[in-house]
């Protein structure tokens, strides 16, 4: 059977980015360079920029420098989330971070892919969700349609192509179950585990 790839017939005209060309250009040419800049002194200014361009961002969110957000208007961030340096939120469609979510350095959230069965390599999109307390480790990759459920962890460098159940840790490529996540009852202060009175 003859098979061929025909990229000249690629057509994503069905895709609706959610804002006008001018609005997208304003983000790409003005908003994003300022948002990414290490010279921008605070998370509050980054949060303000995201909100100005249509993101829903909760309270106490910390966003470090060099973070890339494709389309702020497709981004939902809950309260007290941390987003590390050089994280990349490639959100052609909705990305949702619940409360107390950590997206570590250089983590990549991917909401778009291509159909390898299609000779014209058709675009496919699906949302990504990190539920309350989830953590995507440094350099982890979350693929389209994935959900990290409550308290779930994607280990550093992992490639996640399936949902991670609540309070479980997955790692590797592809990411597989490693262990359950148990939260200590004793707090850590200044890197030292403290005893709790009583």
Automatic annotation (TrEMBL):
Superkingdom of the organism of origin: Bacteria
Keywords, ordered alphabetically: Transferase
Gene Ontology molecular function terms on file: O-acyltransferase activity
GO CC annotations on file: cytosol
InterPro entries: Hexapeptide_acetyltransf, Trimer_LpxA-like_sf
Entry-linked CDD domains: LbH_wcaF_like
Protein name: Putative colanic acid biosynthesis acetyltransferase WcaF
Similarity comment: family membership: Belongs to the transferase hexapeptide repeat family.
């Amino acid at each position: 059977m003859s098979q061929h790839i025909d990229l000249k017939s690629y057509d994503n005209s069905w895709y609706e980015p959610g804002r006008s060309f001018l609005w997208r250009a304003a983000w790409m040419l003005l908003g994003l360079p300022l948002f990414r800049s290490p010279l921008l002194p605070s998370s509050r200014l980054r949060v303000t920029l995201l909100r100005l361009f249509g993101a829903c961002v909760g309270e106490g969110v910390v966003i470090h420098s060099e973070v890339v957000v494709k389309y702020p208007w497709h981004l939902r961030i809950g309260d007290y989330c941390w987003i590390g340096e050089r994280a990349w939120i490639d959100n052609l469609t909705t990305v949702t971070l619940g409360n107390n979510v950590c997206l570590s350095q250089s983590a990549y959230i991917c909401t778009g892919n291509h159909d390898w069965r299609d000779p014209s390599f058709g675009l496919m999109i699906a949302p990504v969700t990190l539920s309350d307390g989830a953590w995507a480790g440094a350099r982890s990759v979350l693929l389209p349609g994935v959900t990290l459920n409550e308290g779930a962890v994607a280990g550093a460098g992992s490639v996640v192509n399936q949902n991670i159940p609540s309070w479980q840790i997955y790692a590797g490529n592809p990411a597989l179950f490693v262990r359950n996540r148990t939260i200590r009852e004793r707090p850590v202060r200044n890197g030292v585990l403290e005893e709790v009175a009583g």
